[in-house]
DNA sequence: TTGATAACTAAACATATGTTTAGTATCATT
DNA sequence: AATGATACTAAACATATGTTTAGTTATCAA
């Protein structure tokens, strides 16, 4: 027999049970057998059914045979999944202090608060929000006051819009690497790109990539002039 | 129109919503359409579907179309939104179908779902979200794919950014009135303003004002070229 | 009176979804 | 070495379940 944990589940069964729990929390309803199959990279439904029957036999779930998604969790937090203290359909995004996109600015230390936003927006990703102060990224349709949804990463693809720390200052730019040179490009022709070479590159840290934008007070925004 | 309760639900819709809630609490997963049909003694699925669409349009539930039992409750009994331990911090915004900002487009009938967003964003206002398809408002830094936060109003201030129905088509423009003339102005020079005079003005209905913008998939956005 | 909306019936229709049968490979125990 | 359980693949198979089209009836507001 394969190895079981303290509660009588094998490793694989525990994984399956964990997946069902997480899916349920995120979606409000249980997964289908095919969804589980795909989540585990299996090629046949039968594998999933075997696991479900084992979980049912061991009292972890109850099923309504022949009925789609009819899985009921009987044992609750027994094996707490790592870290997911917050369940539900919304995520809490900390709001970092105002930064200058283009000008010297304070670091993103000061956390102003948090915003709850639907898990389904921004692909469920993003780690914090950052308010834009300067107008160096207007070419990308990002204007002062916008809240950027930032996902923490230490690397990024070429051309990605990133939040970076340069000489201890936070800035939003497009990232371009060509050979040994890194260019942080604003998208407003009125601003000059930051070119980093050699040891200067070490003075630049990628904080994260910009994956979303939230704009408030549009009504009060500057009207377009023709 | 039939009688509605304080939160905009008719008696029957409230009954249907209540049934879904009770079923979910009792079974751990949502009911199927046929189960609801039988519970209400109806003879056709269509009746249930109509109610589900109404509940979705009003932001009470979110559905995953074509997927069985895929109903997510967004608002709980008291009328406060789900998803957080301390309820009432988020609001449910119905998401209206894609529209063309500048070109002929389908009406905003098709409701795609709903999004939960912090009450403190957008000043707690806004009535629904609308996805932008055209690029007629890029001068205001609104680009295709953006979700507009729209507040329903039948009037607006001069220069406000509005969602309007013109000849049965939905459009996003800046509203300008001068004397007996109304001009709906795009903010992209490649588009022509819509000028309404005399009886034409009646063919134009203001749906609401744009008070916010949400942009997803920024990483994939078109990079700025200098 | 007219038009819009809500709330349904009726009958197909399309497919998402659970199930079965038959078999393989691995592991732990006896 | 034989046994039983786990953890799968492969291919049908059956049907549960959501959707559509085309109506009807009642109610309410303009």
Largest sheet of chain A: 9 strands, mixed
Quantity of strands of chain A, as a count: 11
Termini gap of chain A: 76 Å
Overall average pLDDT of chain A: 78
Query: What is the subunit arrangement here?
Result: homodimer
Total DSSP helices of chain A: 3
User: Which protein chains make the most extensive interface, counting residues with beta carbons within 8 Å of the other chain's beta carbons?
Assistant: A-B, 56 and 59 residues
List SSEs of chain A in N-to-C order: HHHEEEEEEEEEEE
Low-confidence stretches of chain A: 77-87, 98-110, 221-226
| Structure class of chain A | alpha+beta
Arrangement of strands in the largest sheet of chain A: 4-3-5-6-11-7-8-9-10
Helicity range of chain A: 10-25%
3D shape of chain A: elongated
Taking all Cα atoms into account, the compactness measure Rg of chain A is: 24 Å
Strand content of chain A: 25-35%
Topology:
2 copies of one chain form a homodimer.
Chain A: H1 11-27, H2 33-39, H3 45-57, E1 61-63, E2 71-73, E3 90-99, E4 111-118, E5 128-132, E6 147-152, E7 161-166, E8 169-178, E9 181-185, E10 194-197, E11 204-216
Parallel strand pairs in A: 3-5
Antiparallel strand pairs in A: 1-2, 3-4, 5-6, 6-11, 7-8, 7-11, 8-9, 9-10
Chain A binds a DNA duplex (30 and 30 nucleotides) through residues 1-3, 10, 12-13, 32-34, 42-47, 49-51, 54, 65-70.
């Amino acid at each position: 027999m394969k190895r079981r944990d303290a509660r009588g589940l094998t490793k694989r069964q525990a994984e399956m049970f964990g997946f069902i729990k997480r899916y349920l929390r995120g979606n409000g309803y249980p997964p289908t057998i095919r969804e589980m199959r795909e989540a585990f990279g299996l090629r046949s439904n039968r594998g999933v059914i075997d696991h479900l029957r084992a979980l049912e036999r061991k009292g972890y779930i109850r099923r309504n045979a022949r009925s789609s998604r009819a899985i009921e969790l009987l044992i609750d937090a027994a094996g707490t999944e790592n870290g997911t203290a917050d369940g539900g359909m919304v995520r809490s995004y900390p709001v970092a202090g105002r930064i200058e996109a283009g000008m010297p600015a304070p670091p993103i230390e000061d956390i102003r608060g948090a915003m709850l936003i639907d898990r389904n927006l921004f692909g469920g990703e993003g780690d914090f929000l950052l308010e834009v102060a300067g107008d160096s990224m207007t070419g990308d349709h990002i204007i002062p006051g916008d809240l950027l949804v930032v996902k923490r990463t230490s690397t990024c693809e070429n051309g990605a819009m990133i939040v970076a720390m340069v000489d201890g200052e936070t800035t939003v730019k497009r990232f371009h690497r060509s050979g040994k040179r890194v260019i942080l490009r604003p998208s407003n022709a009125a601003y000059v790109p930051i070119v980093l070479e050699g040891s200067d590159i070490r003075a630049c840290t990628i904080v994260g990539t910009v994956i979303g934008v939230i704009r408030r007070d549009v009504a009060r925004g500057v009207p377009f002039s023709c």
